[in-house]
Amino acid sequence: MAQPKILLTRIDDRFIYGQDVELWNEAVGSNLVLIVNDEIAADSRQWAPMRVAVPEGVWTRFFSVQRTIDIIHSATPRQWILIMVASPADALALVKGGVPITKISIGHMQAGEGKRSVTPAVAIDDTDIAALEELRELGIELEIRLLPSSDPDPIQLVIQERPQ
Length: 164
Description:
The protein is of the alpha/beta class. The chain has seven helices and eight strands.
């Protein structure tokens, strides 16, 4: 069985934000945007606004983490996939489940209780840091990049934020 053609995996807790997905889709050339999130996969009422933001001719699927693990290897060679997840933990679960992810771009992680900002768009907590460290140890290329045209922020900014 051929490996699925995963062009990029992106951590962005906004999932499909019109300008963001349009720019990233154009940059990587995907024809399938796979939203991987247990909560959204279980609530089809959230799908319609997200589908509107996807460019014409690009398919959108909403899968749980486990469903993605279970069926990703049945993707056809014609499917060029952009995976969107909300958190480093979801990305790590996919990698540990055998999804052949090689690169993760971190775009937006909302600030909240227990989180600290490491860039204007990325706030992390210890759980996020642990997942990012494990992804890096598994050989996954990591970057923080708001837009395809922007320079990446070094991932060390995130990893070094962990208190000793």
